[in-house]
Design goal:
Radius of gyration: 16 Å
Largest sheet: none
Shape: globular
Helix content: 55-70%
Distance between the termini: 57 Å
Order of helices and strands: HHHHHH
Length: about 140
């Protein structure tokens, strides 16, 4: 017989994320729930569809539809309004914060750790489009 050690789970909600980014992540969660039934979009095609005047909704849906391809795996999204963040949501929030704050060193570090080389520039364009549209 083996004993199971149960440790308390400490959740640290929204670390180092501003209120604007919190609201944006909640809106992205909503779009992610709507896009589950949508077809995934190739990241190269998506960048050809970028229109800086299209607005936040279009930028968010485009990023959501290509995020799985950019990460080479399906991201984990929590329900809108959830207090805690998944690892993918926390990472994306930090990427958006770095882009908004024009902290390009952090932006490059975060994207180089999880996005393949041939997709980094395209992913950066999608994040920049979303960050500009959401402000």
């Amino acid at each position: 017989m083996t004993a199971v050690l149960k440790l308390p789970v400490q959740e640290v909600p929204w670390p180092q994320v501003g209120s604007e980014t919190r609201a944006l992540i909640n809106r992205l969660r909503f779009h992610a729930s709507l896009c589950r039934a949508s077809a995934h979009l190739d990241i190269h095609v998506a960048c050809g569809l970028i229109d800086p005047n299209s607005g936040e909704d279009t930028a968010a849906r485009t990023l959501i539809r290509v995020l799985a391809q950019a990460l080479d795996r399906t991201p984990v999204w929590f329900r809108p309004g959830e207090i805690s963040l998944s690892f993918d949501e926390r990472w994306l929030a930090q990427v958006i914060e770095a882009r908004r704050g024009e902290d390009f060193d952090s932006f490059l570090f975060l994207t180089h750790r999880r996005i393949a080389g041939d997709k980094r520039r395209l992913f950066g364009m999608l994040v920049a489009n979303l960050a500009c549209a959401a402000t």
